[in-house]
Amino acid sequence: MDGHFVPNLTIGPPVLKSLRKVTSLPIDCHMMIENPDDFIEEFADAGADWMSVHYEACRHLHRTLEHIAQHGMQPAVVINPATEVELLIPVLGMVHHVLVMSVNPGFGGQSFIPYSLKKIRRLRELRQELGLSYRIEVDGGIAHDTIAQVVEAGADLLVAGSAVFADGRAEQNARELLQLAQLAAAE
Predict the structure, then answer these.
(1) Most distant CA pair in the chain: distance in Å?
(2) According to the model, what pLDDT value does residue 174 have?
(3) Is-contact 55 87, C-beta < 8 A?
(4) What are the pLDDT digits (tens) for 101-131?
(5) Distance (Å, rounded) from C-alpha 39 to C-alpha 125?
(6) CB 141 within 8 Å of CB 115
(7) Which site in 136, 146, 147, 161 is 20 to 30 Å from 109, CA atoms measured?
(8) What distance, in Å, lies between the first and last C-alpha atoms of the chain?
């Protein structure tokens, strides 16, 4: 977050570089920033594995996604709640995943926007219709009462913040959310 595209600020490449030293897990960088092209090389050098950029922030989305891939990261595209899935069709073949924002970006603790389920289902349909393999990620309002319907709609990757950290029981909350997601996926 850069304080421009969204009002808040978050970690940058120096923190990412420190995190890379302590984990071999994939690091997913969701760039809620204006001009993401200006930071691709720096985040790649710091150890990012996946980089997602907002459709709404990219003047030349195709070029930005190519640039991410050229720097050895898996490119992804993000859409805000008011952005329609059909706008992504030209780039779906290029992306590792599509991130559906199910809240307006920038602040934790918001309520899930139910219309997001329609977008997730549509992305799942398009993946099948077009013979593609991108993953569907969802960020915002993922909690004990929303996780099953999000997974059932077709989400493969889930981002949960407040539902994990809000009450000081992060490990227990994360395990419960994972269990609920696994149960929904098995149905």
Answers:
(1) 43
(2) 96
(3) yes
(4) 999 988 788 899 999 999 999 999 999 999 9
(5) 33
(6) no
(7) 136
(8) 36
The segments of the chain whose pLDDT lies below 50 read none
For 94, other C-beta atoms within 10 Å of its C-beta total 17
User: What's the confidence (pLDDT) of residue 81?
Assistant: 96
Tokens of 142: 């993922």
Q: How far is CA 19 from the centre of its chain?
A: 19
Token pair belonging to 54: 């907002």
pLDDT of res. 7 = 73
- Across 139-163, b (16+ Cβ under 10 Å) vs e yields bbbbbeebbeebbebbbbbbbbbbb
* SS3 (DSSP) at 111: coil
User: Within 21-161, where are the H helices?
Assistant: 40-46, 61-70, 116-130, 147-153
Domains in the chain, please, with CATH? 13-186 (3.20.20.70)
